[in-house]
Design goal:
Layout (H helix, E strand, L loop, with lengths): L5 E6 L19 H9 L5 E6 L20 E4 L2 E4 L25 E5 L22 H7 L4 E7 L1 H14 L3 E10 L6 H11 L3 E3 L8
Helix pairs in contact: 3-4
The structure holds pyrazine-2-carboxylic acid and zinc ion (ZN).
Length: 209
């Protein structure tokens, strides 16, 4: 059992990222039992929830003539335009009902500012607005962050990179993640994470034999 200095951060295990959801991640549902099993190995678990207002800047539908999966230049940089997803208080934004992590201490909601996206659980896409997670984790004495969830190449990767920037040790549990993989984004994400010193393991490495 992992102690309080090691947190499991389970990213965006929400219906809109599951097969059939608004921004479906292929085989995203397969991670749910893996995340449940992992969570039992950790005394300290934090969840994230993508949580957008309906008028969110990342939705293609909010830009005349633009289609999902195109990119657009916004004041803070390039933004992928997504289908409408994870709208606050909708069923698509709910955590999967089979996710069983009763001891999760904190749920960080992100992407709630209408004019800024936030793939990362730590810092919004303007790269300056903190979510507060860095402060929370430091305050409670966390030194290593284990990541799982959806999607590997967006919210998991951006969170892993920001966790490194905040000087946490970081491990991504690969088989407890699934990717969107848009235009080579998954290979690029692993390149960036490896270069930043993110460790990559399989969940079996954490289960006691
Ligand atoms: C995500 C795209 C848009 C994710 C969230 O959870 O990876 N991707 N919003
Ligand atoms: Zn989103």
């Amino acid at each position: 059992m992992k102690g309080a200095d090691e947190v499991l951060l389970a990213v965006d295990v929400q219906y809109d990222f599951m097969p059939g959801g608004a921004l479906a991640v292929a085989r995203g549902d397969e991670i749910v039992p893996v995340v449940n099993r992992l969570a039992r190995e950790f005394s300290h678990v934090v969840l994230t929830q993508d949580w957008h207002p309906r008028g969110h800047v990342s939705f293609a539908a909010n830009h005349a003539g633009r289609a999902p999966f195109e990119t657009m230049t916004l004041p803070y940089g390039e933004q992928v335009l997504w289908p409408v997803h994870c709208v606050q208080d909708t069923e698509g934004a709910a955590l999967h009902r089979d996710l069983h992590v009763p001891h999760a201490r904190l749920v960080i909601r992100k992407g709630h500012h209408s004019d800024v996206d936030s793939y990362s659980a730590f810092v919004e896409a303007d790269r300056v607005t903190p979510t507060g997670l860095t402060g929370y984790l430091r305050d409670v004495g966390v030194t290593r962050v284990y990541l799982c969830g959806l999607a590997t190449d967006y919210c998991v990767a951006w969170s892993a990179l920001d966790a490194r920037r905040a000087r946490f040790d970081v491990t991504v549990i690969e088989d407890a993640c699934r990717a969107i993989d848009l235009g080579g984004s998954l290979a690029k994400a692993w390149e960036d994470m490896t270069a930043a010193g993110v460790e990559r393991i399989e969940s079996s490495a954490l289960f006691a034999c």
